Amino acid sequence: MNVYGYVRISRDDKGENYETIITQKRLIKDYIKDRFNCDMKKIYEDDNVSGYKFDRSGFEKLEENIKKGEVQVLAVKDLSRIGRNNALTLLFLEFLKENNVRFISISDNYDSFKDEDDVIGIKTWYNERYVKDISKKITGNLKVKQRNGGVIIRPYFGYKINPNDKTRLIIDENVSGVIKRIFKLYVEGNGYRKISDILNSEGILTPSQYKKIQDGNKRPVAKYWTPVHVSRIINDDVYVGTLRCGKTKKKKIKGQSIRVPKEEHIVYEDHHEGIISKEDFKLAQAIAKRRDQRKIRAGSHGINLYSGFLFCGDCGKYMVMRRRKHRSDSYICGTYHGMGSKYCTSHHIKEEDINNILLNNLQEHMECIEVNFEKIQDNIERAKKSKNNYDKIIRNLNKSAINKKEEIKNYARQMARGLVDEQIHNELVWEANQELKIIINQIDEMEKYKRLASKSQEEVLKAMDELKSIVEKGVLTRRDIEVLLDKIIVYQPIKPTRGSKSDIQVHVKWNRFIGTI
Questions:
Q1: What is the pLDDT of residue 390?
Q2: What percent of the chain is helix, strand and coil (3-state, nearest 5)?
Q3: Which domain holds residue 265?
Q4: CA dist list (Å): 332 to 189, 307, 312, 316, 351
Q5: 159: part of which helix (H) or strand (E)?
Q6: Could you give the CA distance from residue 471 to residue 493 in angstroms, rounded to a whole number?
Q7: What's the burial of 84, exposed, middle or buried (CB within 10 Å: 0-12/13-18/19+)?
Q8: Which helix (H) or strand (E) is 411 found in, with range?
Q9: Are residues 39 and 171 in the same domain?
Q10: How confident is residue 515, by pLDDT bands cut at 50, 70 and 90?
Q11: Which of 299, 403, 445, 478 sits 20 to 30 Å CA-CA off 226?
Q12: 163 and 94 part of one domain
């Protein structure tokens, strides 16, 4: 008689009559010897594998033998060893019937050749309920721990777990330089793919390769850096000292994890020492957002100096770089470049001309700050004294704006009912819209003073020093452009002549210097 056995354990089972693999095997062998006076043909096993999923190596080999007709009797310690998923367990029992396999569950005192099947459905339901209860308890306990101080499930690339406190991260000096380099390359105008190519060319270990060296895990590793690796690092605020817990959850037990919205994360600010400054991280996020919105793509040489910042003043299209041998780099209208002179003119402008205009503009801006520095200081101090009032004023102004919008709607209702004629309606609406514009301008002004109130003299001095260093070096980098600039609009002269230059209008977004003038 061909008698086979199957044994399984997992961490879910340790609270319910827990027995080791060895104990289960001994139990099955003794039972079969006493009952049938024969030895086991083979016992398949799955060690530390959940019973909720049925894709287990030992179990799958058992199924193959059953399909070949090699199994006459299958013995297990109890039904939960087969599985804790009610539907899948019952399907497997049907599979045994179809293949004429006698099934024996020793602890359940069940023999399929002798006993009725009524109890089986109840037993499989109970086994599934047990593992679901365990899963809920584990998930609940984890969330409680996360809310009461955080749980580090794994060390992040660039960090390692503090040996003296398992809930804290400390910087891994061996690879923290890689993180800094990635951020530096990104803000200098390189895209995710370009950065991954640079890291691969230099033989930098991937996060999974480095982890394998550290802990010797046997999981597959990524041999090469990819744009996805770089993107994850650029967008992960763990590198400024923030710990996020509860970023994923499972829809069902042992199922695939799904991402949880950021607003639902359990967040700990300043949880550990950051590798990247909050200022540089914020800049990287602003760059990523702008590149996505403006469809900026990095080529093999990185991102062109003004890509995504130059716009045609007539058609509004992005301007594109044009490189020619023995000539200065220049930009032309994207519409003209793609569709020809029927749709727009070239708006040709040299990169060096843009540089000179911007540097002169920055020089004037810096001189203006220096001349008005005392006034700026007075504004900061005055703003700080009134800081507590700004939120209240802004709230009241927002209420006034809502009321004014409702008033405009009421005028339309009155005209619809014939209470006022169209001329009076138009006059009332025009007046209300003018008042609404004034309210909106007041809100903008209060927001400006609120931002100003958060500044300090040290921040202004730091901004001045940074601006001065940019002007003094006389060369603009992509990082400078990302920090300072909003957009440049290029207008074509009305009657362009040979050798004439396009007029240029510069809109500068002073990210570091809002409200300092």
A1: 73
A2: 50, 15, 35
A3: 159-290
A4: 20, 11, 8, 12, 11
A5: strand 159-161
A6: 29
A7: buried
A8: helix 387-416
A9: no
A10: very low
A11: 478
A12: no
State yes or no: pLDDT of 140 exceeds 60: no
Within 10 A of 343 (CB to CB), how many other CB atoms are there? 13
**In the beta sheet, which residues pair with residue 49?**
none
Structure tokens at 507: 């809109």
Whether residue 499 is contained in a domain is answered as: yes
419 plus 500 within the same structural domain: yes
Mean pLDDT (whole number) for 498-510: 57
Position 126 scores a pLDDT of 45
Judging by beta carbons within 10 Å of its beta carbon (0-12, 13-18, 19+), is residue 342 exposed, middle or buried?
exposed
Give the integer Cα–Cα distance in Å for 186 and 192. 7
Tokens 């900061």 map to which residue?
380
Residue from 440, 373, 377 nearest 405 by CA: 440
What pTM, to 2 d.p., does this model score?
A: 0.55
**Considering only 67-76, 117-126, 353-362, 479-488, which range has the smallest mean pLDDT?**
117-126
Q: Which residue, chain included where needed, has tokens 């850096």? A: 225
Q: Six-digit token pair at 229?
A: 């690796």
Residues 6+ apart with CB under 8 A from 501: 349, 353, 493
Beta-sheet strands, E only, within 219-323: 243-245, 248-250, 257-259, 266-268, 310-312, 319-322
Chain centroid to CA 79: how far?
43
Closest to 486 measured CA to CA, from 502, 469, 506: 506
Would you tell me the crossing angle of helices 227-234 and 192-201 to the nearest 10 degrees? 110
Q: Residue 39 sits in a domain of what CATH number?
A: 3.40.50.1390
Write out pLDDT tens, residues 5-27: 999 988 655 544 456 888 899 99
Q: Which among 396, 305, 387 is positioned nearest to 352, based on CA atoms? A: 305
User: Comparing C-alpha atoms, which of 486, 152, 504, 228 is closest to residue 355?
Assistant: 504
Q: Is 469 exposed, middle or buried (0-12, 13-18, 19+ CB in 10 A)?
A: exposed
Q: Number of structural domains, the chain?
A: 3
Q: Are residues 265 and 314 in the same domain?
A: no
How much is the mean pLDDT over the chain?
A: 80
The Cα 190–Cα 170 span in angstroms is: 28
Contacts of 89 (CB under 8 A, 6+ apart): 79, 82, 83, 124, 127, 128
Are residues 213 and 172 located together in one domain of the fold? yes
Domain assignment present for residue 145? The answer is no
Compute and round to an integer the Cα radius of gyration of the chain: 35
| Cβ–Cβ under 8 Å, residues 205 and 191 | no
Indicate if 205 and 107 belong to the same structural domain: no
Question: Looking at the structure, do residues 256 and 192 belong to the same domain, yes or no?
Answer: yes
The secondary element (H helix, E strand) that includes residue 68 is none
CB 92 within 8 A of CB 17: no
Maximum Cα interatomic distance, the chain, rounded to a whole number of Å: 107
